[in-house]
Amino acid sequence: MENQLLVPCRLCGHRCGVNRLTGERGLCRAGANIEIATYCLHHGEEPVISGTRGSGTIFFSHCSLRCVFCQNYQISQGDTDKRDTDIRDRGLVEIMLEMQERKAHNINLVSPTHYGPQIIEAIKVARAQGLTIPIVWNSSGYDSLELLEALDGIVDIYLPDLKYGDDAAALKYSGAKNYFETAKAAIFEMYRQVGTRLIVRHLVLPNGLAGSRRALDFLASLSPDIQVSLMAQYSPRHLAVRYPEINRPLSLTEYGSILEYAGKIGLENIFRQELTSQTAYLPDFERDQPFSDD
């Protein structure tokens, strides 16, 4: 049933309508088959996700967004044919079960939206074969409501981005039309499904260009108890050099003002980052272990 969302494709806010099952590729550039870029036990997520043993993190190739500052650009927008042959030949079910055997706290699916139906089927098979650890849906927040309805009862923890509170910025820097309304609807549905097992990430951009206050206003209206991960790790990556207004790291003053605003509007459960995260969390997907701390 979920495969109907691939024909025409309407998994994300682009709703591009291509026939994925016949090999057509839309804006995300994903085909009919899952492409896994890499996987690892990751210790750099929020503490409740990484825990003490690490999160069983699976990075999918391609992405429904085209963020000019993406730190994962090597796999989201790069040449995915260079990915490791061993990973390419292994199935998602096998990898999830391996992560469980390696004592991961959870299965953390990064940039999964464009493979939603295929992932749902793989999770069902893996659970039939003994997978019991929680499933984390780690997305850009640009998920369609139809996809999220199909995920109801499948996903245990939602970990979406709310990248922008400003649609003009979302279009300019991520190529996403109507991002804020799409993400608000998606996050509302995620909250309906899992309640307090929702953690929303927001990356603060230089010069206030993410529309952070508007994004936080929405989250506070949803629930003052919602868990929000306010990220300070922005540094200019990928194509950001072409945009002078974001071609510098975030300042402590800029980050502090957004933290202060979050408290002012009543958001109580905030994950904070140090500015050292701007270099500490930068991955290199040319390495076997993309993160230096893993």
From TrEMBL:
Binding note for cofactor: Binds 1 [4Fe-4S] cluster. The cluster is coordinated with 3 cysteines and an exchangeable S-adenosyl-L-methionine.
Pfam families on file: Radical_SAM
Alphabetical UniProt keywords: Iron, Iron-sulfur, Metal-binding, S-adenosyl-L-methionine
Names of required cofactors: [4Fe-4S] cluster
Gene3D superfamilies: Aldolase class I
Residue ranges of every copy of the Radical SAM core domain listed in the record: 58-206
Binding site residues for [4Fe-4S] cluster: 63, 67, 70
Entry keyword Cytoplasm: no
InterPro entries: Aldolase_TIM, MJ0674-like, Pyrv-formate_lyase-activ_prd, rSAM, rSAM_sf
CDD domains per record: Radical_SAM
PANTHER family: FORMATE LYASE ACTIVATING ENZYME, PUTATIVE (AFU_ORTHOLOGUE AFUA_2G15630)-RELATED
Name by which UniProt lists this protein: Radical SAM core domain-containing protein
Organism from which the protein derives: candidate division WOR-1 bacterium RIFOXYC12_FULL_54_18
